[in-house]
Request: fold
Amino acid sequence: MIEINLDKRDFFVSQLNKLTINLMNTSQELLTNIVFGLKLPPSVRLQKGLKQVEIQKLAPNETFKHTIQIVPVSKGTPVLTVFNFSYRNSLGKVKLLEDTTYPIIVKQAPISPKPETKAKSNPTTIQNTETSEKVSDPSNKQQKILILSAIPHGLRVDKEIRQIEEAIKRAMKRDLFEICIKTAVRPQDIRRAIAEEEPQIVHFCGHGLSNGDLVLEDDGGDNKPVSPEALGSLFKLHCDYVKCVLLNACYSEKPAIEISKYIDYAIGMNQPIEDKAAIVFAQGFYDALGYKTSTNKDVFQRAFDEGLVAIQMENISQELIPVLKRCSQKN
Reply:
């Protein structure tokens, strides 16, 4: 059994607040593959952190803390929802928990008197009374990265995901990025995840077949090939907000070509790529996305080039495998 609670439930409006979710394994057995999502109400803006949480294991009586940073935009009692909570017990059986809601209290922040000084309104800076952290200008739209992983045997996708998260954490513009992770994806999971999350960047890590099919999973956990044409049709439905698709899988050039008919940038692999090269490319790509660049720079081309350089500098000799396809039909 897993017990869930919040560190605190009182927050200030228009300020940067830290919200911590505590999990404790109250059973006497090892629990693994713990996964859940967080849903914030419209009146609470996520500033930093992940809304999709995955924990490899929790020993008996062990606790885990997951912290996000939020900015409530109005007073009231909004509700945080923990949903799609599942884990495996010591026998390997999947256990599901019902969705749980946690009301929080958002109050007006106390005003400290400042004699002879009239503060000017500055919408780009929100101060936390404890940490005085700056919040990114709300006019800079947050970039959501949706990571989809099929986790076939032999591929180090867990390491790839960690490298992406670490690259974003190091980024100069890290507050503008949000990462959402979906694992063991089936075709319906991908459809729903893209529609629900509305990401700007979609990253697939997994396996591809020589005919260009990407390998997902079916309801029984077996391989489920999906054709390049089907993937192109899928992204045609989401071309209004998806800007870049990275298929970090072998033989993924064909689906990248199909996707690039509707999406500005699609990256694939023109032949098999080693796990190390795939991970290093992803690391370089997301490092570059977080760099400060001039507004007239082609950000995704720059990130792609950085990924190639990252492979070269590791002496892996696979820098010609990743290919970048630009949109060919989008109006």
Summary: Confidence is low (pLDDT under 50) at residues 118-140. Residues 168 and 174 are 6 Å apart (CA to CA).
